Amino acid sequence: MTATIGSERVSAPERPEGRRVLVVEDSLLNQEVASGMLRLLGYQADLAQDGREAVEAVQRNDYDLVLMDCHMPGMDGFTATRLIRAWEAEQKRAPLPIIALTADASADTGQRCQDAGMDARMGKPFTRESLRRTLDTWLHRRKPGDDSGMHATVAEDSDPLAFAPDSLEETPFSGALGVEDPSMFGKLAALLRQEAPKLLDKLSRALHRGDLDGVRLAAHTLKSSCAHIGAAHLSERVRRMEQLAQAGSRDGLERDMPGLEADMARFMEALAGPAAWEETRSPENAAASSDGEILLMVDDDPAFRLVTAEALRREGFRVEQAANGPDALALVKQVRPDLVLMDALMEGMDGFEVCQRLKEDVRAADIPVLMVTGLEDAEAAQRAFAAGASGFTSKPLSYPILTQRIRFLLRARQNEKALLERQLQLESAQRLAHLGYWRWDTHRDVFEISQELAAMCGLQSSPSLPGYEGLLTLVNNADRKRLELVLEKARNGDTGQPIDFHLKSVSGSRVHVQQAIELQQEGAGSQVLLGVVQDVTHIRAMENQLRNLAFYDSLTGLPNRVLFFSRLEEILSSARRHNELVSLLFLDLDSFKDVNDSLGHDVGDQLLQEVARRLEDAIRDEDLVVRLGGDEFCILASESEDGLDAAEVASRCIARVNEPFELKHQRIRPQVSVGIARFPEDADTPMGLLKAADSAMYAAKEAGKNRYAYYRVEMTRAAEQRLALEQEIRNAIQHDEFVLHYQPQVDLDSGCCVGVEALVRWQHPERGIVAPDDFIPMVERMGLIDALGHWVVREACQQMGRWSRAGHDKLKVAVNFSPRQLAEANLQEQLQAALDAAGLSPGQFQVEVTESAVQEGRELIKVLQDLRALGVQIAIDDFGTGYSALGSLKKLPIDTLKIDRSFVSDMLSDKHDTIVLGTIVGLAHAMQYCLVAEGAEDLDQVKVLHALGVDMVQGYYLSRPVPPEELTPLLDKDFHALRAVKAESDE
């Protein structure tokens, strides 16, 4: 037997050139495939998206045949066919052949096709051969007036199931696959001689076990292999086995199995016959190294992979292969293919699951997947698309059609990428522009609007409105009269300037737009008004946001300093013209720093927000409250002739602010001091008035706080002194006028100096040494406490390093840290750097923090824990005076308690202080803390402290804070008085 290798045995159609076919299909992919096949067969193809377009096309053009999809959105194929038949009868035209395209082979669908007037049905997906036979039947072989073929179903040739050896000649391999290389048939035959018996054995063993799913899978692969070689009859028999397995008919399978085995034996004999097949085998085609698009073919049928890979390589593609799902997923990551051909039925992980996993992977989700399978049911197609496939086709394949589909999908992918890029660019431009337009023909009163403008109003589609009244119905009620007046002026030639108004969306929201109008004169005196409408909602919102940022305080929402001075200038100008009185109230919270230090800045912010709300409640409608910054507020109040309105406003504000509320589980009563200055009595300029009110506020604080005070001239002098002090402090920092003094801490048992506390002093060039109480509050107010604190740490470490190198390496230095310093992110790095630069160990440094400051919360406790982990010692200063008192000890990572000087100064005259001291000592020793008493002024106090068990003392009795050169001799001093105290206590 000799196999025929060549072209298809197809009867040439009678002059297809000039024949015109209308393809009615809503699927772009199916349109591409059908039109491609028609062009290959020599026909001209026109396309229609739905039934309505089909009817219009038939009425406009002359067609030789219509391929009509049955199920389409809008007008389906059945309705379109009825309308075409009715039109033909009305026009007395010969019926046009209409072939139904459907994947539904049920009798009900066939009856619907016949009732609609369709001539025949052709199943989807169809092959080029089935399409050729359909065209040959209805265009060339049917004679005029011959209706014998009407309402027939176009079907494939009904060959018997039994395999005939000569069927390999009847269905030549090369023609079926579109591959012209004779060696490929030999390669495929050799592969099938190896694989087909294995598949048959696998099928037989699965049937013996009763594993019908295994039978189905084996039959599916074997069916495809037989089809590839051209053994259509044998492929049909195996397909029957597949269908029986899917239907669960084991009896049917066992009946058909002997026939299949016999046919397979003849098939193997036929494949082994022609020696020429072996001789024509050749090495792999060099096209495998193509630089074209990369295709990944996933199929468990090696015959299919062999043939398909060769066909696709000849088309310029680079083909990678995987035999199962896991291999496919791995290859996708390695080679990043441009497209995946995916077999649906595979053992283990099937193609649907592989496709779904690819689509779930963000790196592979955009790779198109063409599902290639022998399945022929609509459910498989639905599953494929549900899994994310881009296309679906059935085996056996027409490789020219497959190539077209692949190129179509690749082109669609590129187009999709380009379209997405253009869409993003267009969307970006539209987002920036937000433009729509309207056109009003005033003569005919036709008002048309663009889709963009319709979208602004929330309309689906509204190309025209009933006159310009229709536009007015879309405009916010408050803007209608103004817009109507603008339109009327425009009709008279006055288009004016662009105006803003609000459109009403059907959803209820308002769209802020800006409109410009242009007048065009047309023939016969007709006028056309053109309006360009831009959605400026976001622009206006941004402008408002920028205005808020510029003129309103972000924390409280009140007007800020900028807006305050602008409004103050306007109000004073108006008051000058009308001889009116204006009062300015300057408000400052009392002890706000204590809240920040003890409860934290976040709680301080909550307090400011609450105070702002209360002030807004307390003022009158005509008054204005602003936040200047920090805890400072101002109120502009109009005045009556008696000038008492400001006092009433101040009293209400004080009472309202003073109402209690809870902050961080603590009930507090905020207090505020108010200074009042009047225009023009106290000052006649904005800055002068503000300065006067500020001076009055300080007078209220000095008078006892939580009250108001009016401005007096002497207050100005005090304010000027404060300003001068601020400038002197800035100069002091710039000229290094700050120095450190040190006060010794003496051990009561040994009488030796074991530590020193570093205390900052201001070496004023004129006033001499200035105590910290006279400048530290001002430094904090100016926001310079951080810089000063850094200098203190560095200087104290350097001096301690000098003492340590002189032999006092057991000495430690204590430095007081403000809560603001402890909140710095790089505190540990700064401290470690200062210690390293001075050559100190962390154990020689002690951080002192006030008891009130530890109420900052967990954040501060975490900072102290980190510092202690560094090796630095922690001391609580002024212990016994804070909010938490003894209860705070259990959660603080501390080493030392420093008893506040107030307990020491009164303990000889107040027995309660002595009792409290004894309690503190007992508790501290039980918790293994070191106790230091501050403020020891005389020997009697030292004796009592020693008797109570205090470990160390610090105070004027031992030494005042002195410069380092004066303290150095004291480091070696033997404090005999303390030894004497110890001796007396021992007796």
Question: How do you describe this structure in short?
Answer:
With 987 residues, the protein is α/β, with parallel strands linked by helices. It has 37 helices and 33 strands. Mean pLDDT is 80; it is low at 1-15, 142-180 and 275-290.
Give descriptors for this structure.
33 strands; eight-stranded mixed β-barrel; alpha/beta; single chain; six-stranded parallel beta sheet
Approximate strand percentage: 15-25%
Radius of gyration: 48 Å
Strand order of the largest sheet: 25-26-28-29-30-31-32-33
Helical segment count: 37
Overall, the morphology is elongated
What's the rounded overall pLDDT mean? 80
Write down how many β-strands occur, each being a DSSP E stretch of 2 or more residues.
Answer: 33
Secondary structure class reads alpha/beta
Helix content: 40-55%
Largest pleated sheet: 8 strands, mixed, barrel
| Amino-to-carboxy terminus distance | 133 Å
Helix and strand arrangement:
Layout: E1 20-24, H1 28-40, E2 44-48, H2 51-60, E3 65-69, H3 77-91, E4 98-102, H4 107-116, E5 120-123, H5 128-141, E6 152-153, H6 167-170, H7 173-177, H8 183-209, H9 212-229, H10 232-247, H11 250-272, H12 275-279, E7 294-298, H13 302-314, E8 318-322, H14 325-335, E9 339-343, H15 351-360, E10 369-373, H16 378-386, E11 391-394, H17 399-433, E12 435-441, E13 446-449, H18 451-456, E14 464-465, H19 467-472, H20 477-491, E15 499-504, E16 510-521, E17 527-535, H21 537-551, H22 561-578, E18 582-589, H23 592-599, H24 601-618, E19 624-629, E20 632-638, H25 645-657, E21 661-663, E22 666-668, E23 672-679, H26 686-702, E24 708-710, H27 713-734, E25 738-747, E26 753-764, E27 768-770, H28 776-782, H29 785-805, E28 812-816, H30 819-822, H31 827-838, E29 845-850, H32 858-870, E30 873-879, E31 896-899, H33 901-906, H34 911-926, E32 930-934, H35 939-948, E33 952-954, H36 964-967, H37 976-986
Parallel strand pairs: 1-2, 1-3, 3-4, 4-5, 5-6, 7-8, 7-9, 9-10, 10-11, 23-24, 26-28, 28-29, 29-30, 30-31, 31-32, 32-33
Antiparallel strand pairs: 12-13, 12-17, 13-14, 15-16, 16-17, 18-20, 18-23, 19-20, 21-22, 25-26, 25-33, 26-27
Helix pairs in contact: 1-17, 2-3, 3-4, 8-9, 8-11, 8-13, 9-10, 10-11, 14-15, 23-24, 24-25, 26-27, 29-31, 35-37
